[in-house]
């Protein structure tokens, strides 16, 4: 996100958004809602699908509603429960969200902003994802128990499934060692994966999981990468947000939500009437507002990405600990948070 200096005082800011991903589009919508003039630059022609489903947690949906975006209008599915199974299919944890839901709400440019940025590094794990029609899932009654997040986990691999498209389709993600996956070239996450690769990787899992894998169609594989912290997220009237500032692995389903929170934070701090002279200091305030929360969510994401029972890197989060953190995570409202910071800044 870059705010040029030619915008006169007391007029809408002229904002240039580089990249039409989740962060860029959210920033454009949020800044437009504040009355600013926004132009988006995007190199992709969006000629092919780039994703199947995305997790929109309550800390994200509250902000989407502020932007007049309602996930239910495009097939958003409410998660009601989380189930975790071992690799044999035995249920080891189950949690119903109904009791706590009331407490919830609702490229090149990086180097310019933060020189000598650390390069992303492989984690040794890959993710394969595909879609599975709910009515073909014989051992799970989606009509009786809709909105359930499922996971089957073994020592160094797991399969997760969550509903989308009005609870008619499961989005499947299989996490496995990259040494066993047909890992594509770095950056290519549209590469197809042979079903045989998945079958071999999860041959010791329950029959139900193997049934899903055998029917995997058009599965895509990509290697998972992590990255160290940037020295800064902003420089003058330019700022990084979303994956450009803090790429996430998918183990907590918070990458998209953090990008949207970034966008709304910037829009809140660059409220209607903000002059160009204040943009640089407001973007510094944006970084102060966002860094602690992002770093905390990154820490828990990495923790949840650890292998089962692998004490060498520390234990993975227990299911109950993950639900507890989700409750803390979902209670945050970025608009309220940034508004308080802005009020405190303005009073000094």
From TrEMBL:
This is FAD-binding domain-containing protein. It comes from Talaromyces rugulosus (Penicillium rugulosum). Keywords: FAD, Flavoprotein, Monooxygenase, Oxidoreductase. Pfam families: DAO, FAD_binding_3. Gene3D superfamilies: 3.30.9.30, FAD/NAD(P)-binding domain (3.50.50.60). Residues 184-299 form the FAD-binding domain. InterPro entries: FAD-bd (IPR002938), FAD-dep_Monooxygenase_BioMet (IPR050493), FAD-dep_OxRdtase (IPR006076), FAD/NAD-bd_sf (IPR036188). PANTHER family: FAD-BINDING DOMAIN-CONTAINING PROTEIN-RELATED (PTHR13789:SF317), MONOOXYGENASE (PTHR13789). Belongs to the paxM FAD-dependent monooxygenase family.
């Amino acid at each position: 996100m870059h705010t040029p200096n030619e915008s006169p005082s007391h007029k809408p800011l002229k904002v240039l958004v580089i990249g039409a991903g989740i962060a860029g589009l959210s920033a454009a919508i949020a800044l437009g809602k504040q009355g600013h003039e926004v132009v988006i630059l995007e190199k992709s022609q969006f000629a092919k699908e780039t994703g199947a489903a995305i997790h929109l947690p309550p800390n994200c949906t509250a902000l989407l509603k502020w932007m007049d975006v309602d996930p239910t209008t495009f097939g958003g599915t409410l998660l009601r429960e989380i189930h975790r199974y071992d690799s044999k299919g035995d249920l080891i944890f189950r949690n119903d969200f109904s009791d706590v839901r009331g407490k919830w709400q609702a490229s090149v440019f990086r180097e310019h902003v933060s020189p000598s940025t650390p390069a992303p590094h492989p984690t040794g794990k890959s993710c394969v994802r595909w879609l599975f029609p709910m009515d073909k899932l014989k051992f799970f009654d989606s009509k009786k128990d809709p909105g359930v997040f499922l996971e089957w986990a073994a020592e160094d691999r797991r399969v997760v499934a969550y509903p989308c498209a009005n609870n008619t389709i499961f989005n499947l993600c299989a996490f496995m060692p990259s040494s066993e996956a047909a890992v594509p070239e770095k950056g290519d996450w549209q590469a197809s994966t042979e079903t045989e690769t998945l079958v071999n990787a999860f041959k010791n899992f329950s029959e139900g999981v193997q049934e899903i894998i055998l029917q995997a169609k058009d599965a895509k594989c990509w290697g998972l990468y992590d990255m160290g912290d940037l020295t800064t997220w902003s420089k003058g009237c330019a700022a990084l947000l979303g994956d450009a500032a803090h790429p996430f692995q998918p183990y907590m389903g918070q990458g998209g939500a953090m990008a949207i929170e970034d966008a709304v934070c910037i829009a809140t701090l660059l409220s209607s009437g903000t002059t160009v002279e204040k943009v640089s200091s407001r973007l510094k305030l944006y970084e102060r507002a966002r860094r602690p929360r992002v770093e905390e969510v990154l820490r828990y994401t990495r923790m949840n990405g650890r292998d089962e029972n692998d004490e060498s890197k520390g234990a993975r989060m227990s299911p109950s600990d993950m639900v507890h953190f989700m409750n803390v995570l979902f209670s945050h409202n970025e608009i309220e948070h940034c508004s308080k910071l802005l009020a405190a800044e303005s009073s000094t």
